[in-house]
Amino acid sequence: MAQNQPIFILAEGSQRTTGRDAQRNNIAAAKLVAETVRTTLGPKGMDKMIVDSVGDIIVTNDGVTILEEMQIEHPAAKMIVEVAKTQEAQVGDGTTTAVIIAGELLKNAENLLDKDIHPTVIAKGYRLAAERAQKVLNEIAESVTEKSEDVLKKVAITAMTGKGAEAAKEHLANLAVKAVKQVVEREEGKLVVNTDDIKIEKREGKGTDESELIQGIAIDKERVHSGMPKVVKGAKILLLDVALEVKTTETDAKIQINDPTQMQAFLDQEERMLKEIAQKVIATGANVVICQKGIDDVVQYYLAKEGIYAVRRVKKSDMDKLARATSARIVSNIKEIAKADLGSAGTVEEEHIGDEQWTFVKDCKNPKAVTLIVTGGTKHVVDEVERAVKDAIGDVSAAVKDGKVVAGAGASEVELSKRIREFANSLSGREQLAVQAFADAMEIIPRTLAENAGLDPIDMLTELKSQHDKKVKWAGLDVFKGKTVDAWKAGVIEPLKIKTQAIKSAAEVAELILRIDDVIAGSTDGKGPAMPPHGSGMGPDMM
Ligand code: ADP
Ligand code: MG
Q: What Cα–Cα distance (Å) separates residue 243 from each residue in 3, 217, 225, 247?
């Protein structure tokens, strides 16, 4: 028996790291991701410029945008990017916060690993602390309703502070709050906001302060026929997801035509059918027709003759929004169109947007879908303003939905840290250390806010903690004046959901990464192993 022969269980070219090395490598990668976005946090955060493979430039300080554009490869790092994506999907803001907390939780876990505390103990402590954090946050949060306009406006402004929208943030905050209030609905006693009901359209070449809210939907389509009116007041709108055409021979059936009169008869027949279709539409009393499919030239002609405004080939998503804005019912069968299906709008109008012609369906009565036209001088500005406005809409919606908000500027994190530390004291054993480490990790937010503002993080944190010990629950950091401030009174307000979601996903990913003690990377057909190139300590090729 050849006992000394090495045994290979993996394919040639695959790599494997185990135990401590795997853990260290993963933690190092996660920390790197957090480090990358750290400098962008808060009103004084810096921006990043990302140049993609085709040379397009993005200037942003939006956490999730940065991480998505970076095309990260390391598997553990990718898990951190997922945290940002989840945060974006669930709340629409707080992506940098979530990533920074995840990085800090792992960094503190590393210190415990150094003290020979087993990863499962750390994971368990983190889970206990994360559960407690949810409870504490819910306790300290303040209540809001959709009528708390003043608070909601502060939420919107806080979301946009330090972003590209800075110059017009008052104006944009008003629009964001108005938009959310317009589309909010009560379902089974609960407030529901679907942010898809707020369509955002970008427009270059105008000042950001010229952004506006349309009580209705703007679509990138012109009217189909120049004989149609450019403006229709008191619009009665028919929405169709069926073509206003005669079905052409879809099968292979051929029509044999032997002499010119037959041809004429055929054409007459077709024209008659088209005229009938047009008449059906006209009979509804609609003066605007918006169609998801095509509209035949003949039908266009008859509609134009009646002074009807018609648009064709409109996106499905826009059709749905139009239905919600105008209270129309989308009709799928021409035979069944009825007056009751029509929706309404104050005005339907064709307008120039740059060098395109758009259709504005506006001044709707109590629309349940609206359009926010975001303006800015150049493409890069408009893009960043759009991201900021999306954050604001996400935050205001989250505040309205949950009815709960907290103060930002590090206030909620310091309070949370304090209360989790108190909780730790009620525990014993090694878990206590993990819960403490979790409490410490919360302080990364005020510390980073201070650092990014060029302030001394240690001084600031000491001051903040002493305020919280004096029961100033919302003591936070005034990053502009370099001192502590009651963040609630200062109007730095965020939805509770930002914090609960960020901590939940950060704790989950930290736990997940801590539990990994073996990384096996299969070879990727000759291109070498799919292992991260840099790691700490012993690399797999040294094993
Ligand atoms: P994220 O991607 O996590 O939302 P941001 O760059 O938007 O990152 O920064 C959010 C942080 O900035 C939050 O902790 C928030 O409380 C803080 N913040 C926002 N406005 C202010 C302000 N005026 N003063 C101090 N901190 C603020
Ligand atoms: Mg933010």
A: 77, 21, 16, 9
